[in-house]
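TOKENISE THE FOLD
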Amino acid sequence: MQLQDTLAIPKVFIGLDIHKKSWTVSIQTDLFFYKTYSMPSIAEDLYQYVERTFPNHQVDLVYEAGCCGFSAARYFLNLGWNVLVVNPADVKTGDKERYQKTDALDSKNLSNQLKAGVLKGIFIPTEEHEQFMTLARHRTQVTKKLRQTKSHIKSMLLFHGIKVPDQFDNPNWSKDFIIWLENIKFSTSCGNLALQGKIRMYKFIKTEYLETANQMRAYCRKNKKKDYYLLKSIPGIGGFLASVILAECGDLRRFNNEKQFSSYIGLVPGIYNSGGTEKCLGITPRSRSQLRSYLVEAAWVAIRKDIEMQNYYRKHHGKNVKSVIVKVAHKMARRILSVIKTEVAYRINRNTIAAI
């Protein structure tokens, strides 16, 4: 019997500190630390350098998620490299790093932790998913600008002593209210020009606000039809929220269980437990904040439409209302994952209704 020598595949561990115009690179092998250097932010240059310097090596690379997105990660993944993108808050740092922080030290720390195997990467979206998510976040930005513009108009009226009629004094602006605004006359042309300019801005942003939501729904009906209609079957979830869920989460089937999904959204409590003392720190700050906000709003709608949700809400009657509605939103999150995993549309429990 002939014995064959089996050699372990040599490995290279690369830590990247990514910025807009430059990357700081720290490279080490499984045997020794190689070097740290700066280079232009061109992925092809790094690939050529590694292939030339470390041929036939298995390459592992890591960088922190940030403003530069995931395009570099997808590029290196397509080359066959093992790539991690990590949440900056999950990278361990010592007390020394509080007083000595440079790009070189950051990249070297990433390289060391990658070699030690203590880093846990976040989900890397496809290019299509990332661009759909960008559209959803554009809608969020437009929503903020719409609220800001409405606030500016009302502030101007208040400043000049113009009282808004009681029937129009609410957050929902009707066509009649816009007509009333357009008919306001100031004592000089400057006041009229300022108000008319703000009204034009409001109309433009409102049009973009409505159009972007329609575009998201149309995209989902065309490209994610099955999941879109499964989500819409849940009371409290309409077409726009279903689109936001798919934009922020991608394929929900990648979550192994409800706990993972709820943690991803941020519908889990922060807990402190030490020395026999345990206390809740409130809802976790780690979240998809916009999606979590939308789900909490949807929970109020679900309570009105679903008897089972009403009973669940009443069961916690007397507790802090904000805490209870987060519980309802968490229950909705479980339903969301369930309908996607089972691919069965949600149906209101008729037995519950009959019992009432």
Observations:
- Residues 1-6 have pLDDT under 50 and may be disordered.
- The first strand starts at residue 11 and ends at 18.
- DSSP finds 13 helices and seven strands in the chain.
- Strands lie at 11-18, 22-29, 33-40, 58-64, 82-86, 269-274, 277-283.
